[in-house]
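User: I'm putting together a teaching handout on how sequence relates to shape, and I'd like one worked example. Could you take Phosphoesterase from Amycolatopsis acidicola, show the sequence you're using, and then write out its predicted structure as tokens right after it?

Assistant: Happy to. First the sequence, then the structure tokens directly below it.
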Amino acid sequence: MRLLIVADTHVPKRARALPDEVWRHAESADVVVHAGDWVELSLLDEFEARSKRLIGVYGNNDGPELRARLPEVARAELDGLRLAVVHETGAATGREKRCAEQFPDADVLVFGHSHIPWDTVADNGLRLLNPGSPTDRRRQPECTYLTASIERGELTDVELHGLPRR
């Protein structure tokens, strides 16, 4: 099972559109995971139209229309892997411990908000992933997103992709 993992797309405020590379992955992935801050409802509609399966949440920059269609926290079982998705996890300090307590039944937690890529494992085995942002690098050297695979309940082939500056 192939995944595309994105967050903090901020279309059209930070970019007019997502890079074509991200759309190619969205169209070929079995599941697209979006950890919030879509900004415009039209982007959610486009992801739904171009993805086989979409799992998403709203972020702090998402208004009432997006909040009406998306949950604050999403959970799914994908080929035996227990996935949770949320936009904000709080400060980096203590994140693993805090998230392990808040998501004890998840194997992987995808989050966004900081625009900073993150890949760590909590003491209880919970893997925390933040794909960064494909449109707004903030203080990072480049815009980013993640791809991964799931094989028999295990997350594999996690790859952080950097995007060229536009």
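A couple of points you could highlight for students: The mean pLDDT is 96. The chain has one domain: 2-163.
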